[in-house]
């Protein structure tokens, strides 16, 4: 098996598709919503020009699905079949892919209105609207909720999870907010201990 094929089959959380109005089922958005996965769609790209032929491209949407767990190419190919869409593509840079939904960083292409971008099932994307950087507060809010839900009390466990499952969105913040997160995790460990109110001893 070639290295390229191995890379293609490596599971990741974020995948992208192109959806064409003439081939997608009428209820394609509902079908995606019913998966429960977070996803986002571009404005309808109906003014794109083929750079080689200078002819209009077929109208289409770009969509990105951010799965709750890593998915292989074979697993997400089912989405292509459901939407009658071309094969899925890995999203290696989530910020760049979100900004491409309206061609933010491609001034040579038609500039679509970013207010026409639509998020589904709680996909949080506003931190990717500019190049200023990730909205650290929003990411930290998600991280803290995860810590509460899982009872995580070790920074190493948090880092391991961020690297393996949330590398694109969480890891930069987890790496840069070490002092804050270590303090919070220590406090979390402390709160999990039970004390004798009279003696102050750990039970």
Report mean pLDDT, rounded to a whole number: 86
The CATH class of the largest domain is Alpha Beta
Number of helices: 8
The portion of residues assigned to helices is 25-40%
Strand content: 5-15%
Total E-strand runs: 5
Report how far apart the termini are. Answer: 56 Å
Can you tell me about this structure?
It comes from Lactococcus lactis. The structure is a single chain. Strands 4-1-3-2-5 form a five-stranded antiparallel beta sheet, sandwiched between helices. With 203 residues, the protein is of the alpha+beta class. The protein is built from eight helices and five strands; from the N terminus they run αβαββαβαβαααα.
Summarize the helices and strands and which ones pair or pack.
Blueprint lengths: L2 H7 L2 E8 L8 H6 L4 E4 L19 E11 L1 H11 L5 E2 L3 H7 L17 E3 L15 H15 L4 H11 L5 H6 L1 H15 L11
Antiparallel strand pairs: 1-3, 1-4, 2-3, 2-5
GO molecular function: DNA binding; DNA topoisomerase activity
Organism: Lactococcus lactis
Keywords: Plasmid
List keywords for this structure.
8 helices; 2 domains; Replication Protein E1, Chain: A; alpha+beta; 5-stranded antiparallel β-sheet; 203 residues
How would you sum up this structure in a few lines?
With 203 residues, this protein is of the alpha+beta class. The chain has helices spanning 3-9, 28-33, 73-83, 94-100, 136-150, 155-165, 171-176, 178-192; strands at residues 12-19, 38-41, 61-71, 89-90, 118-120.
